[in-house]
Amino acid sequence: MKHVLDFEKPIVELQETLNELRKHPEPHLPDLSIEDEIALIEKKLEETRRHVFTNLSAWQRVQLARHPKRPYSMDYLRLAFDEFHPLHGDRLFSDDKAMVGGLAMIGGHRCMVVCTQKGRGTKENILRNFGSAHPEGYRKALRLMRLADKFGLPIISLIDTAGAYPGIGAEERHIAEAIAVNLREMTMFRVPIVAAVIGEGGSGGALGIGVADKVLVLENAYYSVISPEGCAAILWKDRGAAAKAAEALKITANHLLALGLVDAIVPEPLGGAHTDPEATSSNLREHLINALEELQKLSPEDLLQHRYRKYRALGRFSEETAPAQNPEPPEG
Fold first, then answer.
1. What is the DSSP letter of 200?
2. pLDDT surpasses 70 at 319
3. Which fold, 62-312?
4. Where are the chain's structural domains?
5. Under DSSP, is residue 108 helix (H, G, I), strand (E, B) or coil?
6. Are residues 242 and 226 in contact, defined by beta-carbon separation less than 8 angstroms?
7. 201: which of 71, 104, 197, 264 fits an S-S bond (Cβ 3.0–4.6 Å)?
8. pLDDT tens, position by position, 214-258
9. Residues β-bridged to residue 214
10. How many CB atoms lie under 10 A from the CB of residue 202?
């Protein structure tokens, strides 16, 4: 069954009309040839597609980031990387299927890749826990990143998760501690780290593998401290205000770049990554290779200084001294 978002419906209707006309070329207008009519519809289809996808709201981009046909991490491992060899288990509890990692090659560079992985269909989504990792997933990622640091391999992380799993089991096994340790350790690795938000970048679940020297974001991905629905439920007591929350949170690629939270936007084909996964993978591969090659010019000491300065510069604020208030004169 084809998944169609509300704002995509005019495009789909035009495409269906065009397909029918090509199948059954019967004249629709007496003074217009079939070829002319097809050309007119093709032109209108292209104009409509361009108008829709160049004027997307923040909420519409969130919907694209969650599109069920959107490429997931393992799709990019197949299309953008070479010779991926998965590694399993955290050596403490179990192997979390929501967190995938292993050795790979990209553009002639050996690297360690860690990524969150969603599932397609009910069975795989249950296996992958809908892309929300448990503590053992973050501990597996940490084990692999420590291995990369030991052998001088750059680290690449692909982020696509609504957030870390918030269930009782995760709390019992200390999900907050697992993520906190990753944050601390990633600041101190002496190898280049590149992170790419390829879909959803939700809260600490994303940040647990996201402390990097270079952070990339796909054009229709988002990176946020909380989901728009969660924000709407807290601020407006109504999850239906998610579109309003998405605008207020400034979570789209352009906002993130303007705020200095990401270093580059990876372009997607018109219509989103799911319309041409190969082209999107090629764009992502190029950006990852460029980031790696730039970072590999730095010494380990320079990398650590660069990373320190990068995160110290986040979260700008200003202070204003309130004017002194004259105390009320005593009565009597």
1. E
2. yes
3. 2-enoyl-CoA Hydratase; Chain A, domain 1 (3.90.226)
4. 6-48, 62-312
5. coil
6. no
7. 197
8. 999 999 999 999 999 999 999 999 988 999 999 999 999 999 999
9. 194
10. 27
Give the span between the Cα atoms of 296 and 13, in whole angstroms: 49
Which residue, 188, 225, 183, 172, is CA-closest to 208? 183
| Among candidate residues 74, 57, 66, the one with its CA nearest the CA of residue 200 | 66
Residue 105, sorted as left (phi over 0), alpha (psi -120 to 50) or beta, turns out to be beta
**Nearest CA among 51, 46, 270, 52 for reference residue 38:** 46
List C-alpha distances in Å: 280 to 201, 277, 291, 300. Answer: 18, 5, 17, 31
pLDDT digits (tens, 9 = 90+) for 279-295: 999 999 999 999 999 99
CA 97/CA 115 separation, integer angstroms: 10
One-letter amino acid for residue 301 of the chain: E
The DSSP H or E segment spanning 149 is helix 135-151
Distance CA 326, CA 98 (A): 60
Query: CB 3: neighbour CB atoms within 10 A?
Result: 10
3-state secondary structure of 132: coil
User: Of 65, 132, 66, 68, nearest to 99 (Cα)?
Assistant: 132
